[in-house]
Automatic annotation (TrEMBL):
This is Predicted amidophosphoribosyltransferases. The chain crosses the membrane at residues 70-90. Keywords: Glycosyltransferase, Membrane, Transferase, Transmembrane, Transmembrane helix. GO terms for molecular function: glycosyltransferase activity. It comes from Lentzea waywayandensis. Belongs to the ComF/GntX family. The lineage of its organism: Bacteria, Bacillati, Actinomycetota, Actinomycetes, Pseudonocardiales.
Amino acid sequence: MTAFDLLLPATCSGCGVAGTACCVTCLDGFGPPARLQVPGVGPPVWTLAAYHGTARELVLAFKERGARALAAWFGALVAVALVAVGPPPWTLIPAPSRRSAARDRGGDHMLRIARETDIATVAPVLRLAPGVADSVGLTAIARRRNLAGRVEVCGPAPPGTTVLLDDVITTGATASACVRALRQAGVRTNAVLVLTSARPHRPGQ
């Protein structure tokens, strides 16, 4: 946070209301973990919201528009959700970003959220090899080809309920590639938890 930030009143990144980085109404767009059917991923996949409306705006504000204060809000949501997806102790493995994207965002955005959960061990052991393209606009097949063999495991993961953490799931290509890379490195992924899902689901299912 800069001195300039301190001079400006906080506004909700979801709806623009003054006084807070995320108002209660927009926060209510996220609920308890809902189970998703994502072929090819393997472990259970859970989401906290559908990728539309204010939930989408909050994710984009944090990811692309520098609303870093939202990390604490998302971290609190993830901490509550972990209780539902498996028993403690929990190990969070953030899904990796392309290195150029992480530089543009001032760091890995999912790692920032994971570190705000407080109740889980964070293991940033995944990285993307050079040559991975931005997935926006790619078909499901193109997304899988884009990541094939390019997710690397760069260290051990502590024992516990291992949860892969990401912001959005669309085709499942990223989750599948991460789970596969971890499995090849001897790490079992117990669950995948995403903030939002572009896939159809019914809250509470």
